[in-house]
Every structure is written in C-alpha cells, then in structure tokens.
Design brief:
Blueprint (H helix, E strand, L loop, with lengths): L1 E6 L8 H15 L3 E6 L5 E5 L2 E5 L2 H6 L3 H18 L3 E6 L3 H7 L1 H4 L3 E5 L10 H9 L2 E4 L2 H10 L7 E3 L17 E5 L8 H14 L4 E5 L5 H10 L6 E5 L3 H10 L2 E4 L8 H9 L2 E5 L4 H4 L6 E4 L4 H12 L2 H18 L2 H16 L4 E11 L6 H9 L7 E7 L6 H8 L4 E4 L5 H11 L2 E6 L10 H11 L5 E10 L11 E2 L6 E4 H7 L10 H11 L4 E13 L8 H20 L1
Helix pairs in contact: 1-15, 4-6, 8-13, 11-14, 16-17, 21-22
Length: about 575
C-alpha cells in the first residue's frame, strides 16, 4: 500500500504534527506501507529519513508571504507527485494547506482520503477547504476524544466515519530527577502555549523555592516578548531559554526535570504530556480538553484553571516542595502510558484506517460484528466464542473497539480469537466506540454485541435468513433473556421483548440514513439510536426467537438513574417531534 501523507512539517521541523509523523510514519514503513510525506511548511527538497521519503515544499510560507507564484509551483509539484506515485490513500493532516490542495487538485480528489485533526478547528462548518476535506474523507481521525466529540457535535453526519486515535510515544526506562528542582517548559513560544502564565507564576514560586530553575525549550514568534517579560518580572536569573531542540534534547530535559509545566490555553492532545509520562515526570497544566485526557488530576499531575498564574504557582510550589509526591505521580503516569499511549497500537489502528479507506465499498453478504468494550476481560472470551460458533457458511468480520481498558482485555482477545481485529481508541463510552466500529468495518450487515453478553446458537442464521428472504427490510430483531445477577442486580425471568440494536441485525444503509450513535451518553445511546431509527419509518421485522443472552452483573452500563434519564430524554425528543408533525 502506498500512502501520500500531507502535513505541515516533518522532522527536523518542530511541532506536534511533525512529531506525529516522526513516530508513526517510520513504523508504518517497517510494516510494509510505502509512505511519502509532503511537508508543506518549510524549505524545498527531497530526502529519505528512517525509510520514509520526504518531499519538502515551501507552500505554506509562500501563502503567508503572498507569493502566488510559489504557491502555484508547490501545487504543480504536488499534482505531479500524486500522478507519478499513484497512491492508494491520501492522508491529510489538518490544519494545513493540505486541505486546500485536497479540495482543488483533481488527482487528490480522485483518491481515497483519510483526514486527521490535530487541534481545534473553527471551520467545522459546511464551507471552505477544511470542510470540503472532511466531507470527502472516507475516514476522519482525531488525536483526542474531545476533538472527536466536538466534530461530531457540529457535523453529526460524520459520526460513523470518525475514529479517535490518541497521540502515543514509546515507553522508556525512567530516571531519578536531580536534587535541584527544575521546571521544564517544552513548546512553541506562542499565545496558545501559555508560557506568559508560567512566567507570571514564578515570582511567587521562587519566593518559596529560591533554588528552583525553569528551562524553556522551543521557538516561536513571541520569543523576544517572553524574554522581555521574564526580565520585567525579575525572574530571568532563574529562567533559561534554549530555543527549539530535537527530540533527543527534549527527552534529556525531561530526564533532568522535576516537573513539566503545560499552562496551555487550548490543545488537541499534546505530545509533551505524553512524553512527560514516558519519562516518569509529573505534569502541572491547564484544566482544558486534551490535557485532561493526558493527565489524571491528582494522580499523574495537577490541573488548574487556564490563565491563572496564582493557581499555577500554588501547584508548582506544592510539587517542588514534595519530590516524593512528584515521583509517585510520575510512576502513575508511566504506568498509564503503557496502557493508553502505545505507538504500536496507534500504528496498527492507522493501518486499519488505511485498509478501510481503500476498501470503501461495502461487501455484499458480509456481517460486521462490532464489540465495544472497556475492562471486559472477565466476559469477552465467552462473547466472542458465541459469535464464532454461529458462522457456518456466513462470512463475518469481528472488530473489538477497546474504549480505554485498564485490564488485560486486549490480551484476552488475542488469545481467544486471533482473527478478531482490536482497535484501541480514545475513551468516550459505548456510542463513540460503536461509531468507530462502523467507520472501520465493511459488511453489508451490522451486528452489535456488548462484551458481556452472548449469542444463543443459531442466532445469526435465523436473523440473516429473514433478511435474505425480504430484501426490503432494513433490520430484523428478536427477543432476549437475562442471566447472571448478584445481590444488587437481579436478572428478570422469562423472555423479554428487546427491539434494540444489540438484539438484531441491521443493514449498513440504515446507519447512512439515521446517522451514528450520539456521543456523551453514559448508556442510553442504544435507545436514542433506536428511537431515531424507528422515527424514519423504515420496514423492519420482529421474530419470536431468543437472539440475545444479556448478562446481568454489578457493572452493567445500561442500569442506573443517569441511564434511565438518558432513555427518557430520547423518548421525549421523539414525542416532541411527533407533536410537531
């Protein structure tokens, strides 16, 4: 497979997008993907780095300088490169000039596209090159759950094409921090990153810890202004600006510091926070979307309100005075990294995304079984075995979407069902997990199974037989029985009517009409989707057979007052709609 990867930069360029490429593109190349990177933000030239061919074109600087001839020359080069390479997939990393290229170059428009969002984007609207790129994408990836949720909130029609694959780095051995307390700031010297907030916090910190030193690593347009601010505040003796440095220098600084400061005003999911965890260092940062996914407040670091120097000073001073607490937070972050931010998992997920982009057309007769799971090691082997026992002559694909498990769910799946595909995505609940499964599967039919439930024998053949006999049906559903239970959760006796997504098989085209599952719901997403599905009045069939065995236990997400409120809200929305008709 050949991939044309269009991004702002690639090492030695700085920034998160370049770091993203440096970590993933070589790993993809080692897995057999022929990766050609087009770096649009710097100088011109062609080189090979770690098995990846990098074509550098100064398109973005030409755009900023109003150099129309330079922009046109870069466009021509990209068009010729695409014609020569004939890539299987074009991977656009936004925000960048790649969006404009994808919208206007015919050779790019005619190739399957994957679009990745690395930061919050204003143009989630229906207009402009970024919006056009999103609309034309086969799959959209985001580096954080909050970006996925924001995008789906504004563009709900994209829900079944969005997969959140978090930024990841390789875990490495940690070292003990030196006795002199050092605060590390790594990032661009721009308003977004909030270095001014850290500088304003330092007088208070230094009053309590005069031995503390701060190292600022990064370059940007506000460098001179921030150096002047440091001097005006009287903290310049304790602050060292070292400019932009390569990744190995970043790693060395993190090994030498006590705390990593990240007072950003907004983020996607910053690599610095992930790299701090790899080094076993605590983070003091802003309580903003993205950072709150990378840092567990009170466990792997401390989060404070953004733009508040006093709050930041209090947090930095508290950690500077308690190195044992810092070490414990660093250890917790390192342990969490190995579960949540593995580069191998991210690369494998991206390969699956590429395959889905190439195989855009649904496969007639294939049943896509989607299993969302979070900490399902206790039951998922039984669930998958019940699926495999169904197959016979019916072709199936099984995709397990791991919603941030902290147990050994993935290892259990690998042992019990090696043919199943496992993708780990940014945690968001069952709704986004099901949407990710829809984005990454290709079957004409969709079957949803919760990881703690089972299918009775003959279930698949019975439901598929009804669909095969009635081409006009959009879905067929059956009944359920409950089993298990504990002192606080009792299984209901008898056969239960269960006209729900998990108790049937649904044609994929129904999701094209209804849309995906709503984000932000605890466990009412299935009821919400079913209400919307029934509202469009498509033909369905309900059979008398028991087609689902629902396990009742203490951790069912479908129980509790919050879920009941979500279900009632979905029913109320439907009643309100009916009253308006």
């Amino acid at each position: 497979m050949r991939v044309l990867w269009l991004a702002h930069g690639y090492p030695p360029d700085g920034g998160g997008v370049a770091r993203h490429g440096a970590l993933l593109a070589p790993r993809l190349a080692r897995a057999g993907v022929d990766v050609h990177v087009v770096a649009l933000g710097g100088r011109d030239g062609v080189e090979t780095r770690d098995g990846v061919t990098v074509h550098r074109m100064a398109m973005e600087s030409a755009m900023q300088d109003g150099d129309g001839q330079g922009v046109l020359a870069a466009r021509v080069r990209v068009g010729r490169l695409a014609a020569d390479l004939e890539p299987d997939v074009v991977h656009l990393h936004l925000p960048t000039a790649a969006g404009a290229l994808a919208a206007t170059l015919p050779r790019l428009r005619g190739t399957p596209q994957v679009v990745s969002l690395h930061n919050e984007l204003a143009p989630f609207s229906q207009q402009g090159p970024v919006a056009q790129a999103l609309t034309g994408a086969t799959v959209v990836t985001t580096i954080a759950g909050h970006l996925r949720d924001a995008l789906v909130g504004v563009r709900p029609e994209l829900a079944t094409r969005v997969v959140a694959i978090g930024n990841a780095v390789d875990a490495r051995p940690t070292t003990e921090p030196p006795p002199l307390p050092v605060v590390a700031f790594v990032g661009r010297l721009e308003h977004q990153k909030g270095l001014d907030v850290l500088l304003r916090a330092l007088p208070s910190v230094l009053a309590r810890h005069p031995e503390l030193r701060t190292v600022v690593m990064g370059g940007g347009s506000q460098g001179a202004e921030l150096r002047a601010l440091s001097k005006r505040l009287g903290v310049d003796h304790a602050v060292t600006f070292v400019g932009h440095q390569p990744p190995e220098a970043v790693a060395a600084l993190l090994d030498q510091c006590l705390v990593v400061a990240m007072p950003s005003r907004y983020e996607g999911l910053p690599y610095v926070a992930v790299e701090a965890a790899a080094a076993g260092r605590a983070v003091v940062g802003s309580r903003i979307p993205g950072l709150d996914e990378a840092v567990v407040d009170g466990t792997t670091g401390i989060l404070v309100d953004p733009g508040k120097p006093a709050a930041l000073a209090e947090a930095v001073a508290a950690l500077a005075g308690n190195p044992e607490w810092c070490a414990a937070m660093g250890e917790a972050g390192h342990a969490r990294l190995q579960l949540d931010a593995d580069v191998g998992d991210a690369a494998a997920a991206l390969q699956l995304v590429y395959r889905r982009a190439v195989e855009r057309d649904e496969i007639p007769g294939l049943v896509s079984v989607i299993v969302p799971v979070r900490n399902g090691a206790a039951f998922i082997a039984e669930a998958l075995a019940s699926v495999r026992a169904q197959e016979g002559d019916l072709p199936t694909e099984v995709v397990v979407v791991d919603d941030g498990s902290t147990d050994d769910t993935a290892a259990v799946v690998a042992r019990c069902d090696p043919a199943a595909t496992v993708i780990r995505h940014c945690r968001g609940g069952p709704g986004p997990a099901r949407n990710a499964g829809l984005a990454l599967t290709t079957g004409e039919y969709v079957a949803l199974l919760d990881a703690d439930d089972r299918w009775p024998p003959g279930r698949l053949a019975r439901l598929m037989g009804v669909l095969a006999a009635h081409a006009d049906l959009e879905a067929v559903f059956g009944s359920a029985v409950e089993f298990g239970g504990s002192h606080d959760t009792v299984a209901r006796p008898g056969v239960l009517p269960a006209r729900m997504p998990t108790s049937g098989i649904i044609r994929r085209r129904a999701f094209d009409r209804v849309g995906g599952f709503r984000v932000g719901l605890i466990g009412g997403d299935a009821v919400d989707w079913m209400v919307r599905f029934l509202a469009i009045g498509q033909p369905i069939r309900v059979v008398d057979d028991v087609v689902l065995e629902r396990r009742v236990h203490g951790r069912n997400t479908g129980r509790g007052r919050a879920v009941q409120r979500e279900r009632l809200a979905a029913l109320k929305r439907d009643l309100d709609r009916r009253r308006q008709v």
